[in-house]
Amino acid sequence: MTGGHDNGGDDTNRFALTRRALVAGVGAGVGAFVGSAPAFAAEPVGAVTSLVGQAFAGRRQLGAEGPVYLEELIRTDVASRLDMRLGKTTVLKLGPDTRVRIDKFLVDAGGELTLERGSMLFDGKDGGFPKGLSVKSPYATIAVRGTRFFAGELDTPLEVFVYRGEVVVNSGRRSLALGVGDGVSLGQRGAGAPEVKPWRQPKIERANAQFLS
Does pTM surpass 0.70? Predict the structure, then answer.
């Protein structure tokens, strides 16, 4: 009789231990899932419009028409290309092996982007951005005044070219104003002070070839 009672106690203890282990395991799994989930803003600031290859926003793999959220690091794989729309009128094209972070963005009013590496083509509205818009990189900060321009790696670590409108490139040593057809090269050691020069068509075509048409 006593032995039966002891076995029942052991069974109860084993059940309690198993239940606690199960609850702890589920809790750990939930915690790991929550920890890996990106912290999104309430509303997306943009969406993918075209994609060839693979691209990611943080840990999320992006697909056609997938949303893009504030403060996400958007990256493309080697040989991949991505087009996205920010707000209603801004188009951002990314070339292969590119990393861009959307630091701030107010719909069609302005914001801040960071180009960590690779190449991008920015196409904004002609009226400019009332709140101001800038693109930061390790080599310069680009102040955007409603325009279409290229920024990224080509012959040097950072080159900027203006198709339409105007940008101001601040390299830390000087500020350079670029108009239509102007380009500047930065980040090349021993090259001296950067100079604004017109780009010839072959170089413009090499820049264009990095993006989806």
Answer: yes
- Cα(151)–Cα(113) distance, integer angstroms: 12
Q: Is the separation of the CB atoms in 127 and 150 below 8 Å? A: no
Closest listed residue to residue 161, CA positions, set 213, 211, 114, 197: 197
Please count the other Cβ atoms lying within 10 Å of the Cβ belonging to residue 152.
Answer: 23
Amino acid at 93: K
**Chain-centre distance for alpha carbon 189:** 27
In one-letter notation, the amino acid at residue 184 is V
Strands 141-144 and 99-106: unpaired
* pLDDT for res 15: 43
172-183 pLDDT, tens per residue? 878 999 999 999
Residue with the two structure tokens 């309430």: 42
Tokens of 207: 């820049």
Burial class (CB in 10 A: 0-12, 13-18, 19+), 181: middle
**46-208 topology per CATH:** Jelly Rolls (2.60.120)
SS3 state at 31: helix
| Maximal C-alpha separation, the chain | 99
